[in-house]
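Example S7 (structure tokens).
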């Protein structure tokens, strides 16, 4: 079942590519975006993560990101470990949190993304982001959740195709609006 604004964010405990074990206590009291991605070598996903890394400072010091991949930790380290993200990148090999958050799979969404986002796919390929192995489902659709400092979902965005995420501008506006003040 899809989550919606007003729902409390669900707990999360997953291995991270930096070797740590992530849990929601690590972001308690901070606004954040929780994003669910496809498999570790997904070109759309890695292009998006790279953009977030390169623009992370624009979100302000109080905001953070949590990126969850539908992959094993080993596959995720092989495909994303060199990116040195200033935020959490996690592996959910069992897809247990994908189920809890209502993350969907769609053949139509995969075909739609490959077709409508073909220029983006080419850009990813020319950047070296070529899926060399499939270690999870090609059908997983992305989803983004903007969560306030109290752990309440303010925006739930379920992608309609494999490259469909919440806009960078909407993320930035939320991050700057929800700054923690003491």
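Recovered sequence:
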């Amino acid at each position: 079942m899809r989550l919606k604004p007003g729902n409390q964010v669900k707990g999360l405990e997953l291995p991270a590519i930096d070797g740590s074990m992530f849990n929601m206590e690590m972001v308690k009291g901070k606004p954040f975006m929780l994003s669910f991605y496809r498999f570790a070598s997904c070109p759309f996903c890695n292009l998006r993560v790279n953009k977030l890394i390169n623009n992370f400072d624009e979100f302000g010091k109080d905001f953070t990101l949590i990126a969850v991949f539908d992959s094993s930790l080993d596959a995720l380290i092989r495909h994303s470990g060199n990116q040195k993200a200033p935020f959490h990148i996690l592996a959910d090999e069992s897809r247990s949190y994908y189920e809890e958050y209502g993350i969907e799979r769609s053949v139509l969404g995969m075909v739609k993304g490959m077709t409508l986002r073909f220029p983006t796919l080419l850009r990813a390929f020319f950047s070296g982001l070529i899926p060399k192995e499939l270690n999870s489902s090609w059908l997983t659709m992305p989803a983004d959740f903007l969560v306030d400092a109290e752990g309440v979902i303010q925006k739930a965005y379920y992608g309609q195709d494999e490259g469909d995420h919440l806009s960078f501008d909407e993320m930035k506006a939320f991050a700057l609006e929800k700054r923690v003040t003491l």
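Notes on this example. Helices lie at 43-54, 73-80, 96-100, 107-116, 118-126, 168-177.
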